[in-house]
């Protein structure tokens, strides 16, 4: 596999906490040299944008995971506001459609700071049966590929997908198209609510650029030890 576009730490730790105090306590046990951080709905709604600024002041790159999904004008405005926070990466739902994705791209491009813009394809908590139940005939991986085509055509920097799909994404859209992969579970870890899961080493072997990992690290007795051993696992694959 050719050179990975990802620079710096490839693990993005999901800070899924109900308040700033708990999130900051976890951040303090980690290090910007070893990981990036993700702020999602729960934390953003309870702690607000200032928490993102605090984490950035501590040296962390922040992935603003608010999965915008609305009409093009609303999503573009939200992307502009997120970019102004100085975040490293942000995401929108690719299923919002080409016009929405193009509006998001244009909004980011006109700003002074340009975060990586990533399209969420099919959530890793969903499998083929879930898609069929919602009326889609495609498999989860085929639908993820379909939505990635929209994201690539609109000029997004990459997609959120399962690491099961990472190699296919790079084959279709090139090595520069980033794959950001949640649903990562070390061997023997519980799946929780994730369905399309992959181990860290297998994700790296599949060419995943960034691995989003929450509970296996944040609920561990020694989060830094788990993070370090995952980073070691990743180094061995490259
Ligand atoms: O966009 C995301 O980050 C995301 C997309 C997806 O398809 N699946 C997914 O799990 N995520 C996020 O990735 C994190 C995974 O956390 P754990 O399941 O605890 O490792 C959560 O914060 C989810 O919100």
UniProtKB/TrEMBL annotation:
<feature type="domain" description="Orotidine 5'-phosphate decarboxylase">
    <location>
        <begin position="10"/>
        <end position="230"/>
    </location>
</feature>
<dbReference type="Pfam" id="PF00215">
    <property type="entry name" value="OMPdecase"/>
</dbReference>
<feature type="binding site">
    <location>
        <position position="16"/>
    </location>
    <ligand>
        <name>substrate</name>
    </ligand>
</feature>
<keyword id="KW-0210">Decarboxylase</keyword>
<feature type="binding site">
    <location>
        <position position="185"/>
    </location>
    <ligand>
        <name>substrate</name>
    </ligand>
</feature>
<protein>
    <recommendedName>
        <fullName>Orotidine 5'-phosphate decarboxylase</fullName>
        <ecNumber>4.1.1.23</ecNumber>
    </recommendedName>
</protein>
<feature type="binding site">
    <location>
        <begin position="65"/>
        <end position="74"/>
    </location>
    <ligand>
        <name>substrate</name>
    </ligand>
</feature>
<feature type="binding site">
    <location>
        <position position="215"/>
    </location>
    <ligand>
        <name>substrate</name>
    </ligand>
</feature>
<keyword id="KW-0456">Lyase</keyword>
<feature type="active site" description="For OMPdecase activity">
    <location>
        <position position="65"/>
    </location>
</feature>
<dbReference type="InterPro" id="IPR011060">
    <property type="entry name" value="RibuloseP-bd_barrel"/>
</dbReference>
<dbReference type="GO" id="GO:0006207">
    <property type="term" value="P:'de novo' pyrimidine nucleobase biosynthetic process"/>
</dbReference>
<keyword id="KW-0665">Pyrimidine biosynthesis</keyword>
<feature type="active site" description="For OMPdecase activity">
    <location>
        <position position="67"/>
    </location>
</feature>
<feature type="binding site">
    <location>
        <position position="124"/>
    </location>
    <ligand>
        <name>substrate</name>
    </ligand>
</feature>
<dbReference type="InterPro" id="IPR014732">
    <property type="entry name" value="OMPdecase"/>
</dbReference>
<dbReference type="InterPro" id="IPR047596">
    <property type="entry name" value="OMPdecase_bac"/>
</dbReference>
<dbReference type="InterPro" id="IPR018089">
    <property type="entry name" value="OMPdecase_AS"/>
</dbReference>
<comment type="function">
    <text>Catalyzes the decarboxylation of orotidine 5'-monophosphate (OMP) to uridine 5'-monophosphate (UMP).</text>
</comment>
<comment type="subunit">
    <text>Homodimer.</text>
</comment>
<dbReference type="GO" id="GO:0004590">
    <property type="term" value="F:orotidine-5'-phosphate decarboxylase activity"/>
</dbReference>
<dbReference type="GO" id="GO:0044205">
    <property type="term" value="P:'de novo' UMP biosynthetic process"/>
</dbReference>
<dbReference type="InterPro" id="IPR013785">
    <property type="entry name" value="Aldolase_TIM"/>
</dbReference>
<dbReference type="InterPro" id="IPR001754">
    <property type="entry name" value="OMPdeCOase_dom"/>
</dbReference>
<feature type="binding site">
    <location>
        <position position="194"/>
    </location>
    <ligand>
        <name>substrate</name>
    </ligand>
</feature>
<comment type="pathway">
    <text>Pyrimidine metabolism; UMP biosynthesis via de novo pathway; UMP from orotate: step 2/2.</text>
</comment>
<comment type="similarity">
    <text>Belongs to the OMP decarboxylase family. Type 1 subfamily.</text>
</comment>
<feature type="binding site">
    <location>
        <position position="38"/>
    </location>
    <ligand>
        <name>substrate</name>
    </ligand>
</feature>
<feature type="active site" description="For OMPdecase activity">
    <location>
        <position position="70"/>
    </location>
</feature>
<feature type="active site" description="Proton donor">
    <location>
        <position position="67"/>
    </location>
</feature>
<feature type="binding site">
    <location>
        <position position="214"/>
    </location>
    <ligand>
        <name>substrate</name>
    </ligand>
</feature>
<dbReference type="GO" id="GO:0005829">
    <property type="term" value="C:cytosol"/>
</dbReference>
């Amino acid at each position: 596999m050719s050179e990975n576009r990802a620079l710096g730490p490839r693990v993005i730790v999901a800070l899924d906490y109900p308040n700033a105090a708990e999130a900051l306590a976890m951040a303090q046990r980690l290090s910007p040299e070893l990981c990036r951080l993700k702020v999602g709905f729960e934390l953003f709604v309870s702690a607000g944008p200032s928490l993102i600024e605090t984490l950035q002041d501590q040296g962390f790159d922040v992935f603003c995971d608010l999965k915008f999904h609305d009409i093009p004008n609303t999503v573009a405005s939200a992307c502009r506001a997120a970019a102004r926070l100085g975040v490293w990466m942000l995401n929108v739902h690719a299923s919002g459609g080409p016009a929405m994705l193009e509006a998001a791209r244009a909004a980011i491009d006109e700003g002074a700071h340009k975060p990586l813009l990533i399209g969420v394809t099919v959530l890793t908590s969903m499998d083929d049966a879930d898609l069929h139940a919602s009326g889609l005939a495609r498999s989860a991986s085929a639908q993820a590929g379909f939505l990635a085509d929209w994201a690539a055509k609109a000029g997004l920097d990459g997609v959120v997908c399962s690491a099961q799909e990472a190699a296919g994404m790079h084959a279709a859209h090139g090595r520069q198209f980033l794959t950001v992969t949640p649903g990562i579970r070390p061997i023997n870890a519980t799946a929780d609510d994730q369905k399309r899961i992959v181990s860290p080493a297998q994700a790296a072997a599949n060419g995943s650029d960034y691995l989003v990992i929450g509970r296996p690290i944040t609920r561990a007795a020694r989060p830094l030890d788990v993070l370090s051993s995952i980073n070691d696992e990743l180094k061995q694959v490259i």
